[in-house]
């Protein structure tokens, strides 16, 4: 990321929720709200015009839900490609798991404190996923196939395996770096390498693969 403000698009069918998020983010240095939408059908056109770095996405909306809106965003070649942060009321909402499968980068509870919401935007903008480990375990269990012996087709180095295990705990790159006494850029390199070896798009999918393969016990 450059020093320009992080551009945020807010998508929620509740006008009061949008107003609250706008007020919270508008009070933060380095963050700017570039648009709002009350339905998922408005997301792609707004994203094309406003070029957000992060989309705060509600999942339950009347015409087009956040799951399909996330899929449509992922199908578009946008610059920047926005990160999607699902905002939900319940941690165990099945819609959240579907949104993660569709390509969302994490989720945030609506009851989170203002400082947590602002930090969540910054975290996903940096390229980290924002996950609740228990939720990803449930996601993996819900779509559990017959288990393979280890990670399919992947030969992870010992360090990459350590990084993947810490990703499954919900740690960010910076937290992993601190735990393993590595530089953040080194961790990013390991993450990129293991994503390539696993053939997955993002950290969430990597962790789900790790659980489903039995590499990490459910």
UniProtKB/TrEMBL annotation:
It comes from the Bacteria. CDD domains: LuxR_C_like, REC_NarL-like. The modification 4-aspartylphosphate is found at residue 58. Pfam families: GerE, Response_reg. GO terms for molecular function: DNA binding. Residues 149-214 form the HTH luxR-type domain. Keywords: DNA-binding, Phosphoprotein, Transcription, Transcription regulation. InterPro entries: CheY-like_superfamily (IPR011006), NreC/VraR/RcsB-like_REC (IPR058245), Sig_transdc_resp-reg_C-effctor (IPR016032), Sig_transdc_resp-reg_receiver (IPR001789), Tscrpt_reg_LuxR_C (IPR000792), WalR-like (IPR039420). Residues 7-125 form the Response regulatory domain. This is DNA-binding response regulator.
């Amino acid at each position: 990321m450059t020093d320009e403000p992080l551009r945020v698009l807010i998508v929620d069918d509740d006008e009061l929720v949008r107003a609250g998020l706008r007020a919270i983010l508008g009070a933060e240095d380095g963050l700017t709200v570039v648009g709002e939408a009350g339905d998922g059908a408005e997301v792609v056109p707004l994203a094309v015009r406003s070029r957000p770095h992060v989309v705060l996405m509600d999942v339950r909306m009347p015409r087009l839900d956040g799951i399909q809106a996330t899929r449509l965003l992922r199908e578009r070649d946008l610059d920047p490609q926005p990160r999607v942060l699902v905002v939900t009321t319940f941690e165990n909402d099945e819609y959240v798991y579907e949104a993660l499968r569709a390509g969302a980068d994490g989720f945030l509870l609506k009851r989170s404190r203002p400082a947590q919401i602002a930090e969540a935007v910054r975290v996903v903008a940096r390229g980290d996923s924002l996950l609740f480990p228990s939720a990803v375990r449930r996601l993996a269990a819900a779509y559990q196939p017959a288990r393979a012996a280890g990670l399919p087709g992947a030969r992870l180095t010992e360090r990459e395996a350590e990084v993947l295990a810490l990703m499954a705990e919900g740690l960010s790159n910076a937290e992993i770096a601190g735990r393993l006494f590595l530089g953040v850029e080194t961790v990013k390199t390991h993450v990129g390498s293991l994503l390539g070896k696993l053939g997955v798009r993002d950290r969430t999918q990597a962790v789900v693969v790790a659980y489903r393969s039995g590499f990490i016990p459910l």
